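Sequence, please.
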């Protein structure tokens, strides 16, 4: 590639790995578990392409900005019930980051290219990625060269840390085959839907997308049990349903729901604590041991 500056993307293409992997290898990061074979592939590709590191950029990158990105996948249409869940999670992360001395840069993916450029200009120390579809995740992985922690979006790449709710456990415990419907938001990640579809047929799963009618869906479900993800969506279902309900909520207060509604708590505080533990480890603020790549938040039933 004579006459052209070799980039990390060039090396990634030559070595057939992600740009993030190249960044970790060339910066001699030991926080991410990358095999010796993969490291050798990256170094060989860099040598073959005559890669010359930008020492000025590296020096800047080694300076902490004390800025952490929180990147949320906001689509063109966002129903308030889903935004309420996002706000709960962002607030839990933000309060913990402030206690550690970090400021938060909140970015959405409505304009992915622009938001990534903003993140790069701000020189983020790390970023949390909330509810991202696989295609967008892959795009972000190849354009950010900082520690990334994924929340509620399953990438399945052993290079990265992910924090997920154990929705398998929720639906396995709550769904009564043939007599239960499920109501969920239209998340960017299909993780929740895939978990629900293991226990409930497609025709009994309602996705709260723009233009969909929850009233029409519930009209033929009188007397059936409902499992709803989200407190606001649970409140809407309470007003329309004619059978028992179990609602997944973000804390034990559940002030919006009726006393007789069964509450299943997915503690947003616990989820945030898990994510912050990973962050501290990746930024070498906590040397208590490398956390698992995949961490699950366990649901707790309130009865």
């Amino acid at each position: 590639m004579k006459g052209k500056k070799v980039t990390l993307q060039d090396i990634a293409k030559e070595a057939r790995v992600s740009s993030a992997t190249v960044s970790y290898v060339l910066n001699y990061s030991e926080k991410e578990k990358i095999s010796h074979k993969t490291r050798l592939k990256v170094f060989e590709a860099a040598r073959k392409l005559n890669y010359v590191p930008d020492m000025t950029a590296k020096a800047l990158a080694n300076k902490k900005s004390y800025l952490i990105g929180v990147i949320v996948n906001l689509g063109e249409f966002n129903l308030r019930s889903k935004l309420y869940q996002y706000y709960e999670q962002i607030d839990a992360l933000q309060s913990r980051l402030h206690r550690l001395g970090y400021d938060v840069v909140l970015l959405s993916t409505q304009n992915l290219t622009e938001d990534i450029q903003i993140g790069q200009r701000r020189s983020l120390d790390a970023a949390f990625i909330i509810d991202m579809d696989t295609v967008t995740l892959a795009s972000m992985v190849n354009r950010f060269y900082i520690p990334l922690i994924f929340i509620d979006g399953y990438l399945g790449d052993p290079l990265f840390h992910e924090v997920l709710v154990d929705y398998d456990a929720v639906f396995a415990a709550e769904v009564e085959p043939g007599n239960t419907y499920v109501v969920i938001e239209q998340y960017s990640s299909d993780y929740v839907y895939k978990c629900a579809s293991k226990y409930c047929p497609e025709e009994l799963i309602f996705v709260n997308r723009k233009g969909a009618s929850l009233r029409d869906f519930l009209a033929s479900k009188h007397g059936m049990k409902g499992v709803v993800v989200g407190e606001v969506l649970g409140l809407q279902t309470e007003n329309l349903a004619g059978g028992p309900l179990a609602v997944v909520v973000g804390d034990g207060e559940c002030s919006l729901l009726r006393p007789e509604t069964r509450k299943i708590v997915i503690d947003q505080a616990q989820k945030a604590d898990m994510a912050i533990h990973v962050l501290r480890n990746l930024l070498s603020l906590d040397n208590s041991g490398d956390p698992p790549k995949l961490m699950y938040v366990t649901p707790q039933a309130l009865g």
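The chain has a mean pLDDT of 82.
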